[in-house]
Amino acid sequence: MTKDYIKAYIKYFSVQTGGAPRQEKLSWAIQETLSEQDLQLFFLLPFSGSTNYEKLNKKALRKGFSQTAFEESLQRLHAEGFLISYDGKKERVYKRAFVSFTVEQQVRRRKGTPVGAAYGEFWEGLADLTSNMPSKTPYFRVTPVEGSIKTAVMTEVVPVNVEIADAREVLPIDVISEMVRKEPLIGVSECYCRLAKENRGDGVCDHIRETCFTFNELAQTLIETGLARQIDADEAVEILRKTEADGLIHNVDNCEGHLKALCNCCSCCCPAIQSYKKGIRNVNSASRFVAVMDEELCTNCGMCVVVCPVEAITEGDAFPVFEHDGCIGCGHCVTRCPEGAIRMELRAELPKIPATNDRLWSTIRREAVVTMVKEKVLGKR
């Protein structure tokens, strides 16, 4: 394969992430995964948005593809996670996969292989890149464990399926089980962060593995390629409860409207959580809540210090010390406190949440392009 296509793909990657770590290994892994013909077809897909089979086929034939070659490359790009394909409102559509999505699928598909190890090392390197990302809007958002917000703001349990008018109260976007139940198609896969760690040879994470959810179009593309299994809402909620018992953090698309992805993250493997711990705020947004302690009820047992996944609670002389800026708002300290001394309160400044997934990613793309143009004008790129 000529290096031009590899360089083009890495440049495309860098536009979205602000760089590409460990490029030599990434280049090798891509060459082991796709042919030059496959990458040619990838770049015939629109930079943004989707296309249909007929338009893509005509474009490929004009570029010299045979019909057989087109079909083979289209199938391979889909199977390897370089494109997303699903049934739209009127027809089947095809679009470029966001590069992190592609790496996730390669970590799953190539587990236990040298190629899988290369993708796993690349995934680890993304944690160091997050501070250089050219966009400012976080693409993930934490939602608290439900047991922690039943008494937040209000004193009674929040009724399920009841509209809440006051935006400063618990909202449907805070209740993960209700968010999941409204999605018509649900897929679940192994956690790619834990698999990446294992692929790299960095040991095995002890947390449960089948914890990554996709919905609707993303679920369809992964179910069809064997990288996710279809489940119903009841099984999804059952898995969510297991992740809460395991101390994992619910991380969803940072938007209202329909979900596309829901991860249940551990701080030992997840680059997004690791970036938050470093003070970086353009990847992961905290939930709308923050943990607050009642000193009159606290016995300083230290349980909250132990269970905090981001080390935002530390031991103090008389009481634990809560660092509110570092609190990701997951609520685990609330549900694990034996004295009921911790509660969740709405943050003084509520994070802005885009209305839809499309608006979220159009904002991220626009911010990335503007930042990179500015840096190029200033000679920084």
Describe, in short, the structure shown.
It is built from 16 helices and 14 strands. It is of the alpha+beta class. It has a domain at 3-132: Orthogonal Bundle (Arc Repressor Mutant, subunit A).
Keywords, separated by commas or semicolons:
381 residues, alpha+beta, Arc Repressor Mutant, subunit A, 7-stranded mixed beta sheet, 3-stranded antiparallel beta sheet, 16 helices, 14 strands, 43% helix
- Note the overall shape: globular
- Report the helical percentage: 40-55%
DSSP strand content: 5-15%
Quote the distance from N terminus to C terminus: 27 Å
Lateral strand order in the biggest sheet: 7-5-6-9-8-4-10
Q: Please report the number of helical segments.
A: 16
CATH class categorisation of the domain at 3-132: Mainly Alpha
**Assigned CATH architecture of the domain at 3-132:** Orthogonal Bundle
Please outline the major beta sheet: 7 strands, mixed
User: Radius of gyration over alpha carbons?
Assistant: 22 Å
**Structural class computed from helices and strand pairing:** alpha+beta
Give me the count of strands.
14
Order of helices and strands: HHHEHHEEHHEHHEHEHEHEEHEEHEEHEH
